[in-house]
Design a protein that fits this description.
By secondary structure, this protein is mainly α. Helix content is 65%, strand content 3%. The chain is globular. It has a single domain, classed as Rhomboid-like fold. Helix 7 runs antiparallel to helix 8.
Length: 235
């Protein structure tokens, strides 16, 4: 069993994108598990999808809704996460990358919660494309001159791709309500914290160091505290 765990950890850390790989693995596992349990009439994805009307019953869904895949298009979301998410994770490191994903995910879910309160619309929120909107925006800000070949033929610059992504996301939720459409692209606001003059533009560790928040110091204190507890138990 330990060997399987080591092999899995080795797989995650290969290419230096453990968070990106972890999200993809969890999404695929949830999709397969949901398909299998559906034969038993168990809706596994409902435990991870964000429902603004009853969010307090499952508060963890503020973070887990991107893992829920509803259709074939979500497979392309995983591929897009692999491409730009992996690139940003290598550039930023795991801490800054994880902080951005966490903030983008929570800000988007809170924006949907507020839009539901003001609009009266109650929709199930799922899919990786929502936080990917902000992630694409950050990627385009950091690499504005990069180009991708659309359908292998048409070159599109990163900046234009970010606008297209945001526009499609906005339009897809506009049919429900204008507030829902604005909530769908709210992760772009988080992108401003990690680019330009944003507080995390140089990374989370730099921000913590300049504000006298030694992240490693906290980690070491927790490790030492855990070691002392284990020693007491052994005695």
């Amino acid at each position: 069993m330990n060997q399987y765990v080591k092999d899995f950890r080795r797989f995650l850390n290969r290419e230096y994108i453990p968070l990106t790989k972890g999200i993809i693995v969890l999404s695929v596992a949830l999709f397969v598990g949901d398909a299998l349990l559906s034969f038993l009439r168990i809706n596994l994805s409902s435990f991870f999808a964000f429902q603004p009307a009853v969010w307090w019953l499952r508060p963890w869904t503020l973070l887990t809704y991107p893992l829920v895949m509803r259709g074939f298009a979500d497979l392309f979301a995983l591929l897009w996460l692999w491409f730009i998410g992996g690139s940003l994770e290598r550039t930023w490191g795991g801490q800054t990358y994880g902080l951005f994903l966490g903030l983008a995910t929570v800000v988007t879910s809170l924006a949907f919660l507020l839009s539901s309160l003001f609009s009266g619309v109650r929709r199930l929120i799922t899919g990786l494309w929502l936080p990917l909107t902000g992630l694409t925006w950050v990627w385009a800000q950091l690499y504005p001159d990069r180009e991708l070949l659309f359908w292998g033929l048409i070159p599109i610059r990163a900046q234009w791709l970010a606008w297209i992504h945001a526009g499609l996301t906005f339009y897809s939720y506009l049919r429900y309500h204008l507030f829902y459409a604005l909530a769908a692209v709210s992760s772009i606001a988080v992108a401003s914290l990690f680019t330009g003059q944003g507080p995390f533009a140089r990374g989370f560790r730099y921000w913590a160091w300049t504000h006298n928040y030694p992240g490693k110091g906290w980690a070491e204190k927790l490790k030492n505290k855990w070691r002392r507890r284990r020693l007491k138990v052994m005695k």
